[in-house]
Amino acid sequence: MIAVIDYKAGNLTSVLKALRHLGAEVEVTDADLGLVERAERIVLPGVGHFAATRRLDDTGLTGAIRAAIARGVPFLGICVGMQWLYSGSTEAPEQPGLGAFPEQCTRFTEGTEKIPHVGWNSLEVRERSRLLAGVEPGEFVYFTHSYKGPVTGDTAAITEYIEPFSAAVERGNVMGVQFHPEKSGETGLNILRNFLEARA
Amino acid sequence: MITKRIIACLDVHAGRVVKGVKFVDIVDAGDPATQAARHAREGADEIVLLDITATHEGRATLLDTVRRTARELFVPFCVGGGIRTARDAEQVFEAGADKVSVNSAALADPTLIDAIGRSFGAQAVVVAIDARRDKTAADPVRDAEVFVQGGRKPTGRRVVEWAREAEQRGAGEILLTSMDSDGTRAGFDCELTAAVSEAVGIPVIASGGAGTVPHFIDVFGRGKADAALAASIFHFGISTSRGLKEELQRAGVSMRLPC
Mean pLDDT, 10 residues at a time, over chain B (259 residues)? Predict the structure, then answer.
């Protein structure tokens, strides 16, 4: 069973639909710590403002997710759900992230291009990624965001918009994608399938 | 590199895709779910479904249509027409839309943009603007007048000023239709599109007037559009989004290809 975490940051319908389309058994929770403990995999979607992740702390889900990750349960954060894996975001400096990656998320630099970054952009995949296995160079995925994580040793794919940023991060069982795999056609479905097949 | 988007638009009435100019000569053109899936398969970067009659009684039918259309669609999906309240928007999201487009209701009560954005994020709110150049204004393009109710009712609002307010209130994108160009197949209004695109920091989707591939090259270049709506072009020589995108790519416009 896959636990999809609802922290009232936007709409989960598309993510649930894509996971179910791939044959996954999915349960949604906004506070059930037991469900998170039982889950074989965890997905944290999320669009909107980083401050909304505060709800994860208030409900105790942050601790339950941290413990699951420590047990090796595969975890996928999408969009704001990926940003939450960092230590925080300048979008809501008072709100800490999980801190699985020590860096901070920051806003795109103003001036040259439109912000948010909306649309289909290409991925430059680093070879060792399990999550992005089979994704060919230059395949496109759909983005919509104004904040992003920096390129580091944990970066699984780089995308360029204004500056290079982490389109995907991966360290062991902890994975995140800045784009929306549930809205990225066949490429996105393949990435979700890789996540569903990832072993602890 | 970020690509320009080709968005397929389906006009829907009573659960069926229709073709025709506004409410005249409407021809049944199939099932929305089937048509949307076909467009996605044929390379469209996004699908917009517009409920062109948008009656109160038709809401249940529309939600059913959205649900069926969203079921097997894995590209961004926007729904517009008749969304008057945040609750209307919520129902459309629950049925599977990723974005809603609001037009008349946002002009009647601009706080609708704030309300939907607060609950679902700015990326989920598209503000649709229908504008016509105003020859009597100091700047006929920037001061083009905004119309509501399918272009029937003038509002006195000016296009650039309204687009900026929409952005400030939390719109994620602007869908700009030139009423002067709409239905002409003589090309987009590139000056109008550029005026709005330069005035806001959010993406602008150009609509109205597409007839040939060079029209798209023009609106992505001179018009500074981030995306363009393609509707009737698919009946005139170019059969798919993929075909259109391949021609645009050859002309130097960056596109999501292969798709």
Answer: 95 84 63 93 95 80 95 95 93 94 97 93 94 96 95 95 97 96 93 98 96 95 96 69 95 95
- Asked whether the beta carbons of A129 and A194 are under 8 A apart, the reply is no
Q: Helix, strand, coil: what percent of chain B each, to 5? A: 35, 25, 40
C-beta atoms surrounding A30 within 10 Å: 12
CATH code of B13's domain: 3.20.20.70
DSSP A96: B
Whether residue A45 contacts residue A3, with contact meaning beta carbons closer than 8 Å, is answered with no
> Does any domain span residue B256?
no
Which neighbouring-strand residues pair with A148?
A: A106
Domain span at residue A171 reads 2-197
Cβ-based interface (< 8 Å): residues of B facing A:
1-5, 40, 45, 70-72, 74-76, 93-96, 98, 120-124, 172-173, 201-203, 226-227, 256, 259
What does DSSP assign to residue B100? E
Q: Report residue A24 as tokens.
A: 């996954």
The ipTM value here is 0.93
d(CA A100, CA A113): 30
The structural domain count of chain B equals 1
Q: Which residues of A138-153 are buried (b: 16+ CB within 10 A; e: fewer)?
A: ebbbbbbbbbbbbbee
Domain annotation covers residue B255: no
Nearest by CB: A185 against B2, B75, B122: B75
**Burial class, B2, CB count within 10 angstroms (exposed 0-12 / middle 13-18 / buried 19+):** buried
Residue located via tokens 């609106």? B219
The reply to whether B157 falls in a domain is yes
Query: What CATH number is associated with residue A58?
Result: 3.40.50.880
The domain of B29 spans 5-250
Q: How close is the nearest chain B Cα to the Cα of A70, in Å?
A: 31
Whether B257 is covered by a domain: the verdict is no
Selecting among B11, B45, B182, B218, the annotated active-site residue is B11
Rounded to 5°, angle at Cα A17 from A15 and A21 = 120
**Chain position carrying tokens 């602007």:** B174
Q: Residue length, chain A?
A: 200
Split into its structural domains, chain A has a count of: 1
